[in-house]
User: Which sequence fits this backbone?
């Protein structure tokens, strides 16, 4: 049974808590296995304590000890996405307040859902293999047996043995390297994370990595082919960090590095402490996608310092982080820019609600995740419904300065802990004790526990959006005879942010005739745009308007990179274009083995591949 306080974990979180984790990995690129040992320092919370349960997923466990003595262990039944509970019986009894060191020796599975093992051909350099992890939400258990719940926070230390031509980095401070005493073809990299953090933030990458300094506390890491481009793209990092510190308080994690991953990395960014992971699709060449870095930097406070207690409260992580990200945009750019981004966010929310269906309980701000895989529940809803709620409160309670002061105080209050929506709301009412009548007028149930769009739509400033709306309307209203009136000059006044918004608006329209979309290619030549957010929306528009010759380009983008935000809608759109349904499935099957395990699993569900063949439990 899942833990009473966390529907996504089997581990015993009410009886004991992990305080520290000491990891030893030997990375085996031949077998795609991490030969591993972990020592968990566990604090006991009750008397007569003699057993505990850890989360695992596809681990091969060979030995468990407690304070050095052999301990009995047994694996429970396998659950489809939660993995297998590991029941450990101690050879002694402990009392409340005591500590025990539980050591587990194990191998990870080649199919571990947290890991993607890349062949040299799948890397930019083509010479060396590559390994990366992505633990959020429930995948850490496939690389470490642990209390895999964001309600538990611990420090960690790690030693990683890798072939000496490769480099290992982790979500921690680098603590030097030594030759592997067991094998002179290998090196051991060491890491320490002295700030307590949840298991989902453990992260590792091994590859032919290089790095370059981009600020007093920051380097960019990637294969050498991308280091210079990345250093240019993310050169605003230190300014963003300083801006975030002014808004939210001191940055406690020491270093802030960015690692640019291979194209199959499934997310835009991941806030791994000390080392944000980023997709190479952010390398637009003009820094126009750097809001993703502002977003991941913001998680250093909302998410990594103050953490959602379970994935049901994920909006606390993402809603506040989007709010902070846009505050950074406000400081570095303008208030109008923040308002413009908020308009785009509302549209993303509308699309997510349309995709899930307006009655789908997964569109609640606080969904019930009993027997729901958080990867299936993932969408823009916690981000944008969360942001809309915070912005609504900002307007009600006195504006950006007043509300930002609350967010900063919330961060101070709950730093180093994990919180529920209830605790957040109680603190809001305490902080604004003089404005309780205003707060009582908010329809909390509609915002938090009702599916569909929010009960209130904020009025955002449209200064920057107006040019996008008017160009979109020109295309929507144009008859075939009007098409000659469009020219490349139409785009002169639009920034790349506005181009993205223009294409998003077109995508929201019923249908743009094929003649129009073809003319758009003639005059704007969107096929040649390298900006991933532009290219993605353009190809979706072409598929939606049934432009057959563009389908191969859509499938190419879906497979050339694996960011789920792009790959899933592109596959889904082509699959929905009747004539090309089989082609979408065929291309997916051909690439499946080379795809990230989580992405492959979700695209398979989207394309209804292997239904009836899914093994649960
Ligand atoms: N923490 C998320 C990514 C994530 C969420 C991974 C849930 C696994 C499960 C990260 O901070 C994020 O939100 N990334 C966005 C950035 C965007 C909102 C600016 C992305 O990947 O696009
Ligand atoms: Zn985020």
Assistant:
């Amino acid at each position: 049974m899942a833990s009473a306080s966390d529907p996504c974990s089997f581990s015993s979180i009410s009886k004991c808590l992990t305080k520290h984790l000491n990891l030893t990995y030997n990375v085996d690129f031949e077998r795609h296995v991490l030969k591993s040992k972990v020592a968990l320092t566990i604090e006991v919370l009750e008397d007569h304590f003699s057993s505990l349960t850890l989360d695992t997923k596809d681990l091969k466990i060979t030995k468990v000890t407690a304070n050095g003595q052999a301990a009995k262990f047994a694996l429970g039944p396998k659950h489809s996405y939660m993995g297998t509970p590991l029941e450990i019986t101690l050879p002694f009894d402990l009392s409340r307040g005591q500590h025990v060191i539980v050591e587990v020796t194990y191998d990870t599975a080649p199919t571990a859902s947290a890991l993607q093992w890349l062949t040299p051909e799948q890397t930019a350099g083509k010479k060396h293999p590559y390994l990366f992890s992505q633990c959020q939400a429930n995948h850490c258990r496939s690389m470490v047996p642990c209390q895999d719940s964001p309600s538990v926070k611990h420090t960690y230390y790690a030693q990683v043995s890798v072939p000496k031509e490769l480099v290992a980095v982790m979500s921690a401070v680098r603590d030097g390297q030594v030759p592997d005493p067991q094998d002179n073809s290998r090196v051991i990299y060491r890491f320490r994370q002295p700030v307590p953090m949840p298991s989902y933030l453990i992260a590792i990458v091994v590859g032919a990595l290089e790095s370059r300094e981009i600020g007093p506390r920051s380097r960019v890491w990637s294969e050498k082919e991308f280091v210079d481009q990345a250093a240019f793209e993310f050169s605003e990092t230190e300014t963003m960090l300083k801006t975030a510190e002014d808004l939210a308080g001191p940055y406690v994690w020491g270093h802030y590095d960015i690692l640019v991953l291979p194209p199959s990395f499934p997310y835009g960014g991941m806030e791994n402490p000390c080392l944000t992971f980023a997709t190479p699709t952010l390398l637009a060449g003009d820094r126009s996608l750097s809001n993703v870095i502002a977003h991941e930097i913001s998680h250093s406070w909302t998410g990594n310092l103050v953490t959602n207690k379970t994935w049901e409260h994920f909006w606390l992580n993402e809603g506040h982080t989007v709010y902070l990200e846009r505050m950074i945009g406000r400081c570095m750019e303008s208030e109008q820019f923040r308002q413009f981004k908020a308009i785009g966010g509302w549209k993303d929310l509308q699309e997510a609600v349309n995709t899930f269906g307006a009655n789908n309980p997964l569109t609640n701000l606080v969904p019930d995740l009993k027997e729901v895989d958080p990867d299936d529940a993932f969408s823009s809803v916690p981000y944008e419904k969360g942001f809309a709620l915070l912005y609504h409160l900002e307007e009600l309670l006195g504006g950006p300065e007043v509300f930002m002061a609350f967010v900063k105080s919330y961060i101070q209050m709950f730093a180093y802990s994990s919180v529920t929506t209830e605790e957040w709301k109680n603190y809001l009412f305490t902080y604004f004790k003089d404005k309780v009548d205003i707060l009582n007028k908010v329809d909390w149930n509609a915002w938090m526990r009702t599916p569909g769009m929010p009960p209130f739509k904020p009025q955002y400033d449209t200064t920057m959006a107006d040019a996008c709306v008017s160009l979109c309307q020109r295309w929507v209203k144009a008859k075939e005879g009007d098409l000659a009136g469009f020219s490349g000059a139409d785009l002169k006044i639009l920034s790349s942010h506005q181009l993205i918004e223009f294409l998003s608006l077109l995508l929201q329209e019923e249908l743009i005739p094929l003649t129009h979309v073809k003319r758009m290619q003639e005059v704007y030549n969107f096929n040649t745009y390298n900006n991933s957010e532009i290219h993605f929306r353009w190809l979706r528009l072409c598929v939606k308007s049934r432009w057959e010759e563009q389908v191969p380009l859509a499938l190419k983008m879906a497979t050339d990179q694996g960011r789920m935000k792009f790959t899933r809608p592109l596959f889904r759109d082509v699959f929905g274009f009747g004539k090309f349904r089989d082609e979408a499935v065929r291309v997916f099957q051909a690439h499946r083995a080379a795809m990230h395990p989580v992405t492959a699993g979700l695209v398979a569900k989207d394309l209804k591949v292997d239904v009836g063949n899914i093994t649960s439990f």
